[in-house]
Amino acid sequence: MEKAETIRYKATIAYDGTNFSGFQIQPNERTVQGEVEKALKTINKDKFIRIHPSGRTDSGVHARAMVFHFDFPRSIPKEGLFRAINVLTPADISLYHLEEVAQDFHARYHAVGKTYTYRVDNQKIRNPFTRNHVLHHPYSMDIERAQLALDVLVGTHDFTSFCSTKTDKEDKVRTIYKATVERDETTQEWVFTFVGNGFLYNMIRIIIGTVLAIADGRREIAIMAEILEAKKRGAAGPTISPKGLYLEEVHYDREKLKTPEKIRDNR
Amino acid sequence: MEKAETIRYKATIAYDGTNFSGFQIQPNERTVQGEVEKALKTINKDKFIRIHPSGRTDSGVHARAMVFHFDFPRSIPKEGLFRAINVLTPADISLYHLEEVAQDFHARYHAVGKTYTYRVDNQKIRNPFTRNHVLHHPYSMDIERAQLALDVLVGTHDFTSFCSTKTDKEDKVRTIYKATVERDETTQEWVFTFVGNGFLYNMIRIIIGTVLAIADGRREIAIMAEILEAKKRGAAGPTISPKGLYLEEVHYDREKLKTPEKIRDNR
Predict the structure, then answer these.
(1) ipTM at complex level
(2) How close does chain B come to A4, measured CA to CA in Å?
(3) Which residues of chain B make contact with A92, given a CB cutoff of 8 A?
(4) What string of H, E and C letters represents the secondary structure of A192-229?
(5) pLDDT per position as a tens digit, B53-91
(6) Residue B58 among the catalytic residues
(7) Does the global pTM surpass 0.90?
(8) Which pLDDT value is given to residue A263?
């Protein structure tokens, strides 16, 4: 059997979403996909290479580990390709891993789940250094109320109430394996963590908008179950700013996904 | 005795230096002083208020606690003034403290020293989230060599070799009480800390440029004493990027300054 002329690569990148109009390529917009494909085209002697991500992120959303795949000529060695991508992409994108995978690997179809975090600064005075990376929410908040609201979401539910009406997805049933909030002792920020088999359009931003209202006492904890039951976007809280949201990991191992407490150890 | 019509305030602000052309006001440039004075003018019914800083910072240099003083009409209560400044300044400036001080307090003349830090990321792959706040220096480095080089600087010396030739200061003698480098275990960054009675123009950036060359083996440790002795700018290393540099504290208490290990506890 002849060797294929191209190798399929699985790439893991981090990006600061602040100055991007989201991940997905759009005409006349600065996008992560656009910048990566520009770099690959340069490396590939001006021949276009399409990348296939595990999913999209919205304008302003960050990623510590977005995954995509692409096919690239065998003639350029992996190490050189890795370095060239890091040199040719702008400073708000970094390639952390590049792995040769089977020709049938697919970043989106083979993904079994994702981990997202959302960071909230609850201190009175805003921090100028985190203004694009953490939501400043300087109101009195009760972390136990927030956790009780999150607990309602764990499991398999129809998340229509927590999905933007602009979605094109019919099936709104998703499974959340983990939904927690913890204090980061170093930064004093609240860190929300979500592990699930998939997330709908704006889902985490709507969940956070709702949970913050419960945490600061504007809404009752019991409302969370009612919102879920209502299956209407209007029942939930506002879509919060994207700036505190991070795609932390794309999962390809179903067993690890279902025991999310082990995920961090296995990274 | 009649009460003065104005109160003198000591203000402590933090700012992200990335998008400022330094602290000091300049025509047609976005500066920290310019933004603060604009806010004060608005609060003061369109009448200009001059602020007097403890010193300047260059374009791109950050501050966690820059101090300045200004005189403001007694008619506006302190709490309202504090809130109004935070509302009217842009998101890359925050006012953390506002204190009524004696009419003869002077932010610059009464300052007895300063603490600066410089952050270096020594990991192979750049971190997109810290690109404006930490120097990425992905070369093999020996932290013990760096500390030995820093040790040479502690004490009272003529720092001509570590001063930009663009300075207008005649006296280049300064005292450094502390010069250390430590690993920040959370971020894995190297954090250089300098406590001194004053720092010359570009002094810390030239020190870091020199120490990094020693740490990564390009220059010998012994060169540090020779550079100091030479009293020529050309003897030292390059002026490093401002993006890792932070004004951490302005000192007004001479006793605390001389026992710098206590400074952190006293903040």
Answers:
(1) 0.92
(2) 30
(3) 128, 131
(4) EEEEECCCCCCHHHHHHHHHHHHHCCCCCCCHHHHHHH
(5) 999 999 999 999 999 999 999 999 999 999 999 999 999
(6) yes
(7) yes
(8) 46
Q: Tell the burial category of A9 from Cβ atoms under 10 Å away from its Cβ (0-12, 13-18, 19+).
A: buried
- Helix spans in chain B (H): 32-43, 78-88, 143-151, 203-215, 223-230, 254-258
Angle at B221 between CA B220 and CA B223, to 5 degrees: 70
Amino acid at residue number A160: T
Smallest CA–CA distance from B85 into chain A, residue: A125
Tell me which amino acid residue A65 is. A
Which tens digits make up the pLDDT trace of A76-112?
999 999 999 999 999 999 999 999 999 999 999 999 9
**Is A256 touching B (CB cutoff 8 A)?**
no
For residue B67, the one-letter residue type is V
User: Going by C-beta distance under 8 Å and a sequence separation of 6 or more, which residues neighbour residue B265?
Assistant: none
Task: Please count the CA atoms within 13 angstroms of the CA of A262 that sit on its side-chain side.
Answer: 9
pLDDT for B55 equals: 95
Quick check: A116 and A194 in contact, CB under 8 A?
Answer: yes
Inform me whether the C-beta atom of residue A125 falls under 8 Å from chain B C-beta atoms: yes
Tell me the chain B residues in contact with residue A94 when contact means C-beta distances shorter than 8 Å.
Answer: 125-128
Select from A136, A108, A113, A135 the least CA-distant residue to A247: A113
DSSP string, B162-196: GS-TT---S--EEEEEEEEEEEETTTTEEEEEEEE
Q: Strand, helix or coil at B246?
A: strand
